[in-house]
Amino acid sequence: MRDLDANLPSVASRWLRGAPQWLLRVRWTTPAAIALVLAGPWLLDTYTLNILIRALFVAIVALTVDVLWGFSGTLTFGQSAFFGIGAYGLAIVFTQFGFGPWQVLLALGAAVGVAAAVAGFVGWLSFYPGSTPLYVSVISLVLPIVVVQLLYSGGAFTGSSSGLVGFETFDLSLEGWFLVAGFAMIAVLATTSIMVSSDAGRMLSAMRDNDERCTYLGINTSLIRIWLLVATGVAAALAGFGYVAFSGVAAPENAGFIFGTQLVIMVALGGRGSLAGAVVGAIVIEVASAYLSSSLPFIWELIVGVTFVVVIVVLPGGLFGIFRTFGSWLRGKHPRASGRDAAGIAIETRQEAVAIPDPDAVVVEVENVSKHFGSLSVLSDVSFTARRGELVSIVGPNGAGKTTLIRCLADGRERSEGQVRIGGRSIERLPPDQVVRLGLGRKFQAASVFETLRVADCLRIARSRRDKPSFLDVSSVLRLPPAARAVAESSGLAARLDEEARFLSHGLKQALELAMVLALEPQVLLLDEPTAGLTRVERQAFASVLRELVVRERLCVLIIEHDLDFVRQISSRILLLHQGQVALDGPVADVVNNPLIREIYTGNHQSKRAKDAPP
Amino acid sequence: MVTLVLDVVTTAAILFIVSAGLLIVFGVMKIINFAHAAFITVGAYAALVASRLGLPSVLAPALAFVIGGLIGAAAERVVVQWLYSRPLDAILATWGLSIVIGQLVTLAFGRGVQFVPAPISGTESILGEEYSMYRLLMVAAATVIAILFTCVLNGTRLGLSTRAVIMNETLAQSLGIDSSRVRLVTFGLGCGLAAIAGALITPLASVDPNMGLAWLISAFMLVMISGGSLLTLGLSSLVLGGLQVVVSTFVSPILGGLTIAVVAAVALRLRPEGFARA
């Protein structure tokens, strides 16, 4: 007996070592929840069980709201519509065709199919390059209203305002239903929790933190958001399917806008961004409403309303947000993104497989590019080319059009006229994520990283276009190309991989963003005032990094810079922009010694458009 | 035909009255006041109280404006002013506010449906068609509101400060404009306008604690699509309200109720910045 006891831990650990890594990330809460579900039918009375079964199905939809809102940053009032689609999918099929095996399959198919199609369409409507969060919320508001109106106008087919009732459905005991609902909820919770904490799941938080940076890392965020909506829409529809299969009533309220807002309230109170919080919020509110709405009908809603306002204003993290703050306060001062596998991330170098075919190839070709806003012309007829192994500094006074030029190179929709080719291919009217695929990397003026992600995750997201991240696992290896690795190591980022990006200094954030852009393995690197706000030492370190990139990696670097000494030190060529036109383009010595540059910078240059230059 | 045209014009006028308060709040603060519906309800109950007290019906909108404006200003101080940097949270908090106001109204007046008699009844003969006088009065009311608004924005010091805050808040602040006071006044005005709208529409509809909700989505979509300008709000009320009337008359009232939301959603997809500069 004692021997057996002593052996148990090693048996367990051997078994655990054999288990897939994602299974280990399911925490103790899951077995606890399973135990609760198993014990429920013995402990609870019929009325409570009845309410809890409904609450569990509602909790599944609340989870989908949390994934969309808490994780990917899309505030949605529309998940109720998908719940309603699942509910009516079952009710309509069972009313029309009766109950039976093929009818069940048909109802499931209808619920999933219609929900996926509607989610796809709504996603296409909501998510496009440049759509705003407010617009997405607007569409999510319109959706349940449209669905409810369609249900109202459906006559006997949808039961109009009284809904559908009296169809034959699954014959299962109350206890059986409780187990089904409980295990369905736990399965969805566990799956969601594994997926959102996986390497691929970090993408959701990255999009929430900084959608633009994602786009400029070559990630098609619109497409990801559409697929996310389809997945969450289908999950919500299945929850609605289960809800009506149990209750035997499908009502328009199941799809309505009010239910949609109630779901948001549940998630807000439980804690957005916390899956367990969403589930607890949903169950507590559903159960409490059922008990209190009969005894204290208006007071109860008043309490919910007041609590909701207070939580939104004072505690945006909700109930579980308090737990999290308290937990990280207990652990120490620096909260970490995930305490479990904070340490032990190893950087590996991704070996360059392909040699650069032509180390002097022309990779940037700009032909007659113009940009105007109405009658105001910001760039006119700009043309130049740049090769691999060249570092071209773009200089010029404020308002010369430098940043506009960078924007026109990185986003095909920006320029008004002209042609841009990157690596020999035209950027047409492509959005930034596709221009990035042609071999372009853009670093913004203000450090643009993912604030709530760890440094390692920021870099992994940057690699995600080339190394597809896993939907299940959290990798302990970070594979970077040599240039990105060199920046991470020389800046000291390599030692701080498990820290959240928002705790980094300004200089380190800039280094992180540069490493992220280099992780794309670009041929062309665009840098907008990368040294602004850096110390002298950081600036010198940056100069040598740039030289390495140009000489060893044969990158073509275009850099906007104000400090002419720094420009002279690093550049192989200087492009002087003045009032939207190329004033000078040539080797460093030629441009720097040209009297024109002094005239332009001191304001003495008389151009055809400068009317009132000072004497 | 005459009836149809009158329906279009009066519907547009009502939509304009209902949306104007939401527009001014969105224009200045760039947040959506989801409690707008609750303030419409408050205005309707103010009209109910006024008619029970036997006050002259001209005073009903004025009473509604004062009550709605005061509650709105209080709400801005307590809730909204903390949320200007979190616009999506502002939507949620004002939605919570509307739940609170709705429940307080229910506690005070009960859940039942009540009616306010119209101050003027009967019909007017226009080009041989009989048409409801009160609906025609709405066109006049919308015109008065639009003119008053334009005068306040363009003719007063408050209007000047407001326009400065709309254009560039940081700069306005550095020039000594108290932007927090501008916001307080604007939010109060917006809520007061919503309450006027509630008082004005009550004779056309019944009064109940959730009556404002029916108007919220239309008002919201009209404001989004008008992009923050009073003129485009009038135009979009006319165009979308007209479409709504046409669809309701010739296709089905239920689809008519959806027209504004769906058309506006698609239009915003094609032109995200709204139609303020069109």
Can you offer a commentary on this structure?
The complex is a heterodimer of chains A (615) and B (278). Chain A is of the alpha/beta class. Chain A is 56% helix and 12% strand. In chain A, the strands form four sheets. Chain A has a six-stranded mixed sheet with strand order 9-11-12-6-13-14, sandwiched between helices. In chain A, strand 11 (524-528), helix 21 and strand 12 (556-560) form a beta-alpha-beta unit. In chain A, helix 4 runs antiparallel to helix 11, helix 4 packs across helix 13 and helix 6 (101-126) runs antiparallel to helix 11. Chain A is elongated, with a radius of gyration of 29 Å. Chain B is mainly α and 278 residues long. In chain B, strands 1-2 form a two-stranded antiparallel sheet. In chain B, helix 1 crosses helix 9, helix 9 crosses helix 10 (230-250) and helix 10 (230-250) packs across helix 11 (253-270). The mean pLDDT of chain B is 87. Chains A and B meet through helix 7, helix 12 and helix 14 of A and helix 4, helix 9 and helix 11 of B.
Short note summarizing the structure:
The complex is a heterodimer of chains A (615) and B (278). Chain A has 615 residues and is α/β, with parallel strands linked by helices.
